Amino acid sequence: MQISVCIKPLAVKLGLKWTKLTEATNMVTVNDQKSPTLGIVENAQFKIMDALVPINIHIVDSTKEELLIGSNWFSKYKADLILTKNKLKFEV
After folding, report:
1. DSSP state string for 19-39
2. 7 burial type by CB count under 10 A (0-12 exposed, 13-18 middle, 19+ buried)
3. Does 1 have pLDDT greater than 60?
4. Is 73 helix (H, G, I), strand (E, B) or coil?
């Protein structure tokens, strides 16, 4: 399953409010450690330039402030990341 993830310290800094999941899920974080999902922010108001693109974000506990956009978001918005041109194309 590909999901979008935000680390708790960044989620707190951004003022995100999450609801606890009924079933705990462990994730392997960027630093290769297992971390339980603390909850989910449903339809978080993610903004790119002037486009508002809601996204579900799972919150995990870790020390780094990171937000990882999963392929679920790329699929939902038919997004293409063009690294050679430093561009992101997507449909709203």
Report:
1. B--SS--EEE-TTS-EEEEEE
2. buried
3. no
4. helix
